Amino acid sequence: MTDETNAPAKVKVRDYRYRIEGRFHHIERNQPIFKEDGSLVGVTNPRNMTYIHTYGNEAVFFENLGKGRIIASKCANPDCEAYGSVFMPFRIHCPDCLARNEHVDITDIAKETSRVHTFMITERTGAFNTLPKPIKFINVEFDGVATILMGPMLYGEPNIGMKVKPIFRTGDPTYTILDLGWVPEGTGVKDLPQYYTFE
Question: Is the pLDDT of residue 4 over 60?
Fold first, then answer.
């Protein structure tokens, strides 16, 4: 598909099909790469593309973050050893029996029982390199949840065992995991990053 307009790429869904509109592939001129002695060793091949990634059955998780809700999943197969286990991060299928999981809203559980299991502080992130540095990643555990979720602590200093509260990017959501962050229990609304709320 080619489009010579300068409009940014947009994706619309019509009749359950994706329709791409605007310019989504910008070709730039190749540039030579020379060694210090002036000999050619290669050439750049720059491309600026818009990639489309579908969440499929995980969309419920990402959509709800922007609404201030955390949706986990639970094994609903009574024949499975993991029957009733709640998983966060969200999983479509049970990792033990591969049956389709049920959706479970754990927002209230997260607000009441979240605590730091472990943490790390780094200067690099795979989260689109948009988090403020240093980046404080915490592994969060919840009562009644079989797994641990990693996310950024967006205010304060992490300590193992400390209680934390989820915050949500409900203003201008990104529909990515960046719509969920964590702050120490007792953090005030005035200390939250722009676009984030407790609800």
Answer: no
Integer Cα distance of 197 and 64 in angstroms? 14
Q: Is the pLDDT assigned to residue 157 strictly greater than 80? A: yes
Structure tokens at 89: 């991060």
Question: 48 — phi, psi (to 5°)?
Answer: -120, 105
Yes or no: say if 144 and 115 are a contact pair by the CB < 8 Å rule: no
The amino acid present at 78, given as its one-letter code, is P
Q: pTM (2 decimals)? A: 0.77
- Structural domains of the chain, with CATH: 56-197 (2.40.50.140)
What sign has the CA pseudo-torsion 141, 144, 145, 151? negative
Percentage of the chain with pLDDT > 90? 64
The Cα diameter of the chain in Å comes to: 70
Distance CA 135, CA 165 (A): 17
